[in-house]
Amino acid sequence: MKFVDRRDETARLLQALARERSALVVVYGRRRLGKSTLIKKVLTERDVYFLADRSEGHLQRALFAKVVASLFPDFDKAVYADWESSLRAVNYRCGERFTLCLDEFPYLVEQSPELPSVLQKLVDERSLKYNLVLCGSSHDMMYGLFFDPSDPLYGRSDEIMKLAPLRLPYIGEALGLDAVNVVEEYAVWGGVPRYWELRENRGSLADALWHNIFSVNGALYEEPVKLFRDDVKDIVKTSTIMSYIGNGANRLSEIAARCNEPATNLSRPLKKLVDLGYLEREVPFGTDEKNVKKSLYKIADPYMAFYYQFVVPNRSFIELGRRLPVEMALNAHFSAYVSMQWEKLCRDAVSGNLVNGVVYGKARRWWGAVLGEDKKPEQVEFDVMAESIDKKYLLVGECKWTAQPHDAYQLTAALLRKAALLPFVSNYTLVPVLFLKNAPKEDAANVLLPEDVISLSM
User: Fold this and answer.
1) Can you tell me the distance from the alpha carbon of 177 to that of 172, in angstroms, rounded to the nearest whole number?
2) Nearest to 406 by CA among 448, 366, 343
3) All residues at 6 or more sequence positions from 195 whose CB lies less than 8 Å from its CB, including other chains
4) Could you tell me the pLDDT band of residue 1, with boundaries at 50, 70 and 90?
5) H or E element: which one contains 3?
6) Per-residue pLDDT for 68 more than 90?
7) Are 457 and 447 a contacting pair, CB within 8 Å?
C-alpha cells in the first residue's frame, strides 16, 4: 500500500532531526498505526534502525551491535557489557551526524531497566553526536518514561509525537474507493494502516472480512487481545467490558450490572480504556463533561466496535466454520452498524470546521426529555449538534444511512419542529443540516453527502 497522509508527522520528524545539535525524538502510539513505517521513510542509508524484541539484555546488545556494524565495520567484534558502553562506542565511532532509532523501546527497558538512566546521562552530558529516535507501542510505558516527572527521561526529549489513526479521506486514496465505500470500509477498518494493507490484498470488502476476521486463521481474528497485551493487565476483564459495551450496555450502571460488580470497581478500567483510545465517554451537547449520570460509554475505535458487535457473539460459529449464521448477522445489522459510524464521522467533520459559511465548535449528540407540543414529556435525540464559535448559530443535524432517497423538505421540517422543543434554542439561529447517504429527491441547500463529509474531514 502506498504511503498516505502523515504529512505533518513527516515534516515534524524531519525538522527535529535537522536541528543544529543532536536531538532526542520520541514516537509512540498503539500498534498498527505505521510508526515504524513513518520512521523508516524518514531515515536514510546513513542511519541505523534497530528493532528490539523480548530477548535478554545481553542478546539484545549483541543484535544491536550487528546492526550498527552495517554503518561502522567490525562494531560487532567487541562484547559490550552494558548499554552505556555500547552507546558510547557508537558515539566514539561517529564522525558525521546520523540518526539511531531504537524501535520497540519498551522491550529494551523491560530487560534493561537501567537504560533510561543511561540515556539521561548521555543526553545531559550534551556530548551525543547522533540523533536518537525512541519508538514504542506501550502507551503506559512510553507515557510513563517521558511524562512522569520521577522518570529519568522526563523533560529530555526534543520532540514527542503521538501517532493517531489516519483520517477518513485517506482510506479512499489508499484503496481507490468512492465516497460511499469510503464510509463503509472506514466503519470496519478505521484509520489503521495495517488493516488497510490487509484489505488491499483482497478483492472486496466481503472477501477481506472472511479472510482476515471471520476465520480462526485470520490475521485480525484475535486482534483486540494482541493490542491489550501492551497495556492491560487483566485482559479477560477488559474484553468482557468491551463486549458488553459493544452490545448495547452504555451506562455505567448497565455495565456494572452485566459484569456483576459494583460500579466503583469499573471506574479505573473504564478510564484506562478511554485513555488508550478504545472507549469514549459521551455526554449530551451542553452538558458538563464531568457529569457521570448522563455519561454513555461507546467503543471509539471502528475496528473494535465491529469486532465486538459481529465477531464476539459469533465466535462459536466461526470456530466451527459455520458461515451462514455470521452472514445472517451481517445482512441484518451491518447497515445499522455503519449508520452509527456515519453519525460519528459527521460529528467529527462538523467539529471546528466551516460549514456553509459558519465555524462551529465541537459537535455532540443530544438526547433527553422535552415537553412536546401537547405539553407531555417526550424523549428526543439529535445526531449532530454544534454551537457556532460566535455563539449565534446552533447546528442541528439528522444522519441517515439508507439507500432510498429521502424527502429533504420533510426531514428538515421534522428536524426543526423537534429542535423547537428544546429549552435552550431561543438563544440561537437554528441551522438544520441533513447528512445523507444518497442525494435527496429534490435539491436542498442543507444536505451534506458522503463526499461533502469526506471533504470536510481533510
Assistant:
1) 5
2) 448
3) 32, 189, 220, 303
4) low
5) none
6) yes
7) no
